[in-house]
Predict the 3D structure of the following.
Amino acid sequence: MALVVTSQAPLLLLDEDLAVIAASNSFCRIFEIAPAATTGLRLSQLGAGEWNVPQLSSLLKATVAGDAAIDAYEMDLIRDGKKPCRLVLNAHKLDYFDADLTRIVLAVTDVTAARLAEKIKDDLVREKEVLLQELQHRVANSLQIIAAVLMRSARSVQSEEIRTHLHNAHYLVMSIATMQKQLATSRAGEVALRSYFTDLCSSIGASMIADHDRLSLTATVDDSSVDANISVSLGLIVTELVINALKHAFPGRNQTGKIKVDYLSEGTGWTLTVGDNGVGMPGGQAGAKPGLGTGIVDALSKQLDASVSVTDAGPGTTVSIVHD
């Protein structure tokens, strides 16, 4: 009893009827109960009856019977004229040589301030996530505006070379805009590649394929999700390879064909493939690095620690980006 009374932690020593045998001075001080008004009272009678909590009483009775022990049970202590307290309670049955003597030690910790701090932190995190998503939406919208300006400029210039460069810039900006849209709807900075590549191919096809009955562009992707930075690089690679295939694989105005984007991961490895059934590599150049001029695919693949290979698909060409 002396140990309980002098304890710095809020403690109660209860008998088998949940009557108070002793209460620590810290318990009485924190919960504003006179020490002399605790001994002999049942727990439910302490204070103004705020400790009369049926679920707590049931748990303590189970502890008395030896059927359970209370570990980190949380409850709100409601007192008239005071703010609710969030409490964490622990109760254990003491073992005596006299088996007929039952004693329960109930430890009470006020975690109100800690829970409030956690709530403030969680609210700030949620607010940050909302602001980040709003920023990503705005960035995606701005990129689409830039892409539209590039396309309008491409229509107005006389130089075919400049027009080609503007078209390429438009497709690359649209690739990043599509990624931003996916990132805005994803969580924890992860981008689901299936929806990303599907939307990206739809965007490129809408801009570059005049007759969808003649040329088709499809994406087959597993359930992989990757970091946003990696998704940007993969999206730019897909954009460049698809544009390259649209420009060179089907030179005839009436030629029909298919372009397929495939992505498959296994463990930490993955393979990205862009293939077509067009005219193939000129002069039997299969096995060489793809002639992309700007070197975008080669540079981005190196950043991803991946290798690039080109094969003759007979008909057509297949470009594979492999990360082991």
